[in-house]
Amino acid sequence: MSSSSTNDSIKEQIQEFVDAPKNFFKDGMQFVNRCTKPDQREFLRICQAVGMGFAALGALGFIVKLIHIPINNILVGAA
């Protein structure tokens, strides 16, 4: 009795192992088929958002650098 149930559980594990890539591929194909290219208006809005992000991070980096330079000169100059 126990060997039969063990064989069944092994077969189920093997079946799950084989089904995982199939399900992943199927879900991936559904996702790709559902995706659409953005129209010009949506593309421009995405570009604006990315540009604003670049500008914000650039400004933040510039401010951090401006604060870091005098502090570094004070610490290094004092030695």
UniProtKB/TrEMBL annotation:
Name the UniProt record assigns to this protein: Uncharacterized protein
Stored NCBIfam families: secE_euk_arch (TIGR00327)
CC per GO annotation: endoplasmic reticulum membrane
Record family assignment: Belongs to the SecE/SEC61-gamma family.
Domain of life of the source: Eukaryota
Organism: Umbelopsis vinacea
PANTHER family hit by this protein: SEC61 GAMMA SUBUNIT
TM regions (residue ranges): 43-64
Compartments where found: Endoplasmic reticulum membrane
Keyword Transport: yes
MF term (GO), any: protein transmembrane transporter activity
